[in-house]
Amino acid sequence: MAGRRQFFFILILLISWSSAFVQIAGAIQVRTQHAQSSPKQKSKPTTSAAKPRRRTSPRLRRMRQAFVASATLKSMARQLLQDRTPAAYAGVQGYAVRHSKEDAGALAWLVIGYAHILDHDYARAIDPLNRAKPRAGDFGDYVSYYLGTAYQQTGRLAEAIATFSGFDKSYPESLLIRDGHIVYANALLADGRASEAVDLLENDRQPVRADLELALGRAYEAAGQSAKALAIFRNLYYTMPLSWEASQVQGDLGRLATASQAPPPGLEARRTRADLLVKGKQYGQAADEYRQLLGEISPDERPMTELALAESLRRAGQNREARKILESLPSSPPALNAQRLFNLGEIARGANDDDTFLHIVEQLRQIAPTSTWLEQALLSAGNIYLLRRDYDRAIDAYRELQQRFPNGGRASYAHWKAAWLSLRQSRQAEARQGFENQIALYPTSSEAPAALYWRARLAEEDNDPAMARAFYLKLGQRYRNYYYGELARQRLSKIKGIGDPPHYLLLDHVPPINASDRITADVVPADNLRVQKAELLANGALLDFAVRELHAAADEEKGNWLAAETARLYQDAGRYDAAIETLKRAAPNYFAVDLPSLPRPYWEGLFPKAYWSDVKRFSSTNALDPYLVAALIRQESAFNPNAVSRANAVGLMQLLPKVGKGVARQEKLRHFSTQQLFTPGVNLQLGTRYFRSMVDKFGSFEYALAAYNAGSDRVQDWLGQRQYRDPQEFVESIPFTETREYVQNILRNENVYRQLYGTP
User: Fold this and answer.
1) CB proximity list for 278: less than 8 A, separation 6 or greater
2) At what angle do helices 283-293 and 302-315 cross, to 10 degrees?
3) With bands split at pLDDT 50, 70 and 90, how would you rate the model's confidence at 662?
4) pLDDT tens-digit map of 469-495
5) 68: buried, middle or exposed (CB in 10 Å: 19+, 13-18, 0-12)?
6) Would you say 260 and 230 are in contact if contact means Cβ atoms under 8 Å apart?
7) Which end of the chain has the lower number of beta carbons within 10 A, N or C?
8) C-alpha pair distances (Å), 353 with each of 345, 372, 528, 716
9) CA 605/CA 308 separation, integer angstroms
């Protein structure tokens, strides 16, 4: 009997091992598929040579098992960290209890503890984090760090010190060591052990961190070393003024200076703080700093400081005081006077006093003809005339800017506007020459595709199909997925021609795509401990932790896999906006390349089919192309359902509350509230209905998109200006750069969606 029981025990054990192995293998297969092309894509992306795999360690096997077991935790954890409602807490706690003897349960307890930390409810974080400790394994550093933090925040200093005293030894590879030292030092400091806190932090000062410097300064102060504390606090206050820590030391500076009998800070340090505040767009604070400097600086430095003060006040919206200072400043030296006049001009422009502004531009021409202030003012002058529809004067201003500053940052744009307005003024010869000069002078500019396209259009109108074909071919090949690239291919399909078109030397100015920019899709090193740790943390919706681990893994490994894997984690967590931004940084020139030149996961991350069932359903209801709707959402919110704009537009399709309320009434949605605009399905239902109304009103998607961005009244006004060849000419003529690029980007994105996914 005993032998039979032993036999059955061994048999059951073998079966359980086999099941676990199948689960792990399945998980690895799923992860590998994420790094490869979609099955629909026939051509696989380029991959680097595979490196020899490391032997699987017990730590790695344990994390893989926990990863497989915790897959069902992800959605509950995400809900908890997003909402932190009692129901969400209860759901994750129920999971943790059910899996209390597994690493997956420990991960759930970590999520609960971290959620309490986010709520600043440190006392309630302690129990779940303690429950996580026994089975935490390789994510034990996160458990210990937040447990020690909770102890420190609740005044349980002995336990906090005990937790962190062995942290470095227990987790020598942890990314949280410096973070832990800061909390540890604060606990030591609160326990009256300032010297130990100083010794701990002094070895950690590079690279510089404001939170560490604040803790070290506090430790020096408590240790009676006022001079060292003052030096640290001054450095924080004057060289890191945008940090929260800088605001915490302001009240200590005078007291410590008295205690250490230190001389006051130098004027240079104070000016540095003011300048950094300006750079950080904290104009009100910067103005306060400049104002304080005025009483102490030399007469020679006073005009420049007054000018900096006035400019800060202007940017802070305090135009009356700014104007008073500017008008009292001397008119020399010329460089200072040019800046003074420019600021007066900006105040006038902000008050819609265009005549005063244009008078100031004339003064700048006389006193500072090569100044950057004139360059900026000429651009503003051109834009003023453009909005006034005084196109001849707008052309003159733009042309003057380009001719005076041909290598300046605004030259290409100004040249293009002059050329384009010449076309709108029916001066075809000037427009032809302007477009060709644009290509020759600024072939790498963002305006080059437009110049190529419209020069080809004029060639068509001149009955020169050979030239048109050559320009369209160049445009379609070099700017593959640009707005004008797709338009060029459409025009090219209607032009009859056999063989290659003539060679135009002008087109040689446009440089080819840099082949070295080609991106490969390397396989994620699944045998790297940090990679597996990131996967496990992602199952707990601890996304920031997971991404941090991936970056550390990329520092250890070779290969181009980090961006795609990071984007995949973001996508899995519903953070499509973060995935898009990650891949944009990794492949900034993606619109210029053909689809096979970029790995499929990049394209799918850049152009996700998020909320696709609702997008299709409501697009169909409103007779809209779902790819156009997806492209609009990508432009509006990057698929972030919680997005809120500066104008208070809400959700995926960025609806204003008053618009949402009006459309909800049309759709007969009962008990509608603005909060419902954050619900993807509701936002899509109302957004597509509203966009459909724009299409019905204007009859063209180009016009409807412009109205969606800039408002119906403006589009009606723009459409009332002369005649346009077609909607494409209307789009290029939109006077608001934001709206013009908005329309072009959405139509471009729609084309990429269609190329990627075929029939919706």
Assistant:
1) 286, 308, 311, 312, 315
2) 160
3) very high
4) 999 999 999 999 999 999 999 999 999
5) buried
6) yes
7) N
8) 9, 22, 64, 26
9) 44
Nearest to 601, CA basis, from 573, 643, 572, 630:
572
Return the SS3 of 644. Answer: strand
CB of 652 closer than 8 Å to CB of 598: no
Q: Is 225 left (phi over 0), alpha (psi -120 to 50) or beta?
A: beta
Among residues 343, 382, 383, the alpha carbon closest in space to that of 363 is found at 343
The reply to whether omega before 128 is within 30° of 0 (cis) is no
Buried b (16+ CB within 10 A) or exposed e, 676-708: bbeebebbbbbbbbbbbbbbeebebbbbbbbbb
Tell me the C-alpha distance between 92 and 78, whole Å.
10
d(CA 745, CA 741): 6
Report pLDDT digits (tens) over 578-637. Answer: 999 999 999 998 988 888 889 999 999 999 999 999 999 999 999 999 999 999 999 999
Q: 516: which 2 tokens?
A: 């070295």
When pLDDT is averaged across residues 54-61 and rounded to a whole number, the result is 83
Q: Tell whether the torsion through CA atoms of 255, 258, 264 and 269 is positive or negative.
A: negative
pLDDT computed for residue 43 by the predictor:
39
- pTM for the whole structure: 0.88
Contact status, residue 365 vs residue 334, Cβ threshold 8 Å: no
pLDDT at 263 over 70: yes
Give the span between the Cα atoms of 62 and 164, in whole angstroms.
25
Please state, in angstroms and rounded to a whole number, the distance separating the CA atoms of residues 400 and 404: 6
Tokens 């706690």 label which residue? Answer: 93
Name the pLDDT band for 558 (thresholds 50, 70, 90): confident
**Unique residue bearing structure tokens 């795999």:** 53
The CA distance from 140 to 129, in Å, is 10
Q: Is the backbone peptide bond immediately before 241 cis, with ω within 30 degrees of 0?
A: no
Residue 638: pLDDT over 60: yes
So what's the pLDDT on residue 52? 55
Return all residues near 629 (Cβ < 8 A) that are at least 6 apart: 615, 618, 619, 684, 688, 691
For the chain, the maximum distance between any two Cα atoms, rounded to a whole number of angstroms, is: 110
**Angle of helix 562-572 relative to helix 529-539, nearest 10 degrees?**
20
In sequence order, what are the residues at sequence separation of 6 or more whose Cβ sits closer than 8 angstroms to the Cβ of residue 682? 669, 676
pLDDT score of 65:
94
Specify the DSSP element, H or E, that contains 74. Answer: helix 74-83
Annotated active-site residue 636? The verdict is: yes
- Three-state secondary structure call for residue 655: strand
DSSP sequence for 569-637? HHHHTT-HHHHHHHHHHH-TTGGGS-GGGS-HHHHHHHS--TTHHHHHHHHHHTT--HHHHHHHHHHHT
In the chain, the percentage of residues whose pLDDT exceeds 70 is: 92
Q: Which residues contact 208 (CB under 8 A, 6 or more apart)?
A: none
- The residue annotated as part of the active site, out of 311, 535, 636, 732, is 636
Question: Cα–Cα distance between 67 and 537 in angstroms, integer?
Answer: 9
The Cβ of residue 647 has, within 10 Å, a number of other Cβ atoms equal to 8
**Cα atoms in the 13 Å half-sphere on the side-chain side of 661:** 6
* Distance, CA of 666 to CA of 673 (rounded, Å): 14
The alpha helices in 351-427, defined as continuous H runs, are 354-367, 372-388, 391-404, 411-424
- Report the length, in residues, of the chain: 760
Closest C-alpha among 626, 639, 690, 640 to residue 662: 690
What whole-number distance in Å separates Cα of residue 403 and Cα of residue 475? 27
